[in-house]
Design brief:
The chain has 357 residues and is α+β, with helices and mostly antiparallel strands. It folds into two domains: 86 residues; 236 residues, Bira Bifunctional Protein, Domain 2 (BirA Bifunctional Protein, domain 2). 41% of the residues lie in helices and 19% in strands. The protein binds 3,4-dihydroxyphenylalanine. 3,4-dihydroxyphenylalanine binds next to β9 and β10.
Length: 357
């Protein structure tokens, strides 16, 4: 083997051995670069006689081409391998669950309201809202609570100062029921609304907060009966507490704005001081309801001979405490971040009935 053949074999071996693109480039420079081994051979051609130069020149050119070709081929292989490695390094499995990040927590009241909207939303209810500052008409009289009615005292109303020009005293709404009146007076039936929101009563002890939350429900349509009310509320309670056979009991009661009226209890057990929602000996009251009183429909310009309805109202703190085992009402509004971290919910975790609530 001539010296040139040996040099060619050495360089081709180096090309084959180059482990990455940088190493390959170093081989190229050391062979074909300005001071490379093949380039050095080329330079010697000048000193040869014409015959020898021609033969050596052809041989060198062939070697140079062969080396360049080997480098190009090796380069393609290495580039492909590098791309593969990079793709593997940078893969993202989009099917993995989101990695929870510490960006705060959803308050149990907000979460509970979202759950209720999700459940009633599937039953085609719309969310309605009303003002926190109400007038006597919407909060009381249109709801069939006349001026001297005992319900007014029971509500421990917060009154605002009398207005200068006419002496009217607004109130902080004591329940979400005034939004029933607002909905019926601004929308022609049929109606199907829920109203989650803040309510206010001048009451402050271990089981009462002067600001608390209720959710109201109102359905007005033709041929609505108590059976619709029962079916809807039983389905709601079972979905909300996630107990398919949850016992639900309707107990006769009284509210001025419904007739007949009922209170709804859910079954529970309290063995060993441990409260469990579901079958058992005990009952827990969770909401009030009834058929919308004909006078209330009339107060909203709706003919009770043509339309009927049912309504319900529920305290949100109370059911949130029952569902999530939160023992103390006051802690809801203390803004203690440790409490919120413990009882709160991750923002990425959005309530959906299909997953169970
Ligand atoms: N507004 C009532 C309260 O605050 C709750 C209530 C009871 C609302 C019966 C209703 C209902 O719509 O039908 O105690």
């Amino acid at each position: 083997m001539s010296d040139l053949d040996a040099l060619k074999a050495t360089i081709l071996q180096e090309v084959a051995d180059a482990a990455d693109l940088d190493a390959l480039e170093r081989v190229r420079v050391s062979a074909l670069g300005k001071k490379g081994r093949i380039t050095a051979q080329m330079k010697q051609l000048g000193g040869m006689d014409p015959e020898a130069r021609k033969a050596a020149g052809q041989q060198l050119n062939a070697i140079k081409d062969a080396i360049q070709e080997a480098i190009d081929a090796r380069k393609a292989v290495l580039a492909e391998a590098e791309m593969q490695a990079r793709l593997e390094r940078e893969t993202i499995d989009v099917s993995l669950p989101a990695r929870p990040r510490e960006i705060g927590h959803i308050h149990p009241i907000s979460r509970t309201v979202e759950e209720m909207i999700a459940i009633f939303g599937e039953m085609n209810f719309e969310v309605a809202e009303g003002p926190h500052i109400e007038d006597d008409f919407h909060n009381f009289s249109a709801l069939n609570i006349p001026p001297e009615h005992p319900a007014r005292q029971e509500h421990d109303t917060f009154y605002l100062e009398a207005r200068a020009h006419d002496g009217e005293r607004k109130v902080l709404r004591t329940h979400t029921s005034p939004v029933q009146i607002r909905s019926m007076r601004t929308h022609a039936p049929p109606l199907r609304v829920i109203v989650p929101g803040r309510t206010f009563r001048s009451d402050d002890d271990a089981t009462h907060s002067p600001m608390f939350h209720q959710i109201e429900g109102l359905v007005v349509d033709k041929h609505i009966t108590f059976a619709h009310l029962k079916g809807t509320l039983i389905a709601f309670c079972r979905a909300f507490f996630g107990v398919d056979d949850l016992p639900v009991r309707f107990r006769p009661s009284y509210f001025p704005f419904t007739e007949p009226s009922a209170e709804v209890d859910i079954g529970c057990s309290k063995e060993g001081g441990q409260l469990k929602i579901g079958g058992g000996e005990d009952w827990l009251e969770i909401l009030g309801c009834g058929m919308v009183h004909p006078k209330v429909l009339e107060n909203c310009g709706i003919d009770p001979n043509e339309w009927q309805g049912y309504a319900f109202g529920m305290g949100i703190e109370r059911v949130a405490m029952l569902k999530y085992g939160i023992p103390d009402l006051r802690t809801f509004f203390e803004s203690d971040l440790r409490w919120l971290k413990h009882y709160g919910f991750l923002p990425v975790d959005i309530p959906a009935p299909v997953r169970g609530l």
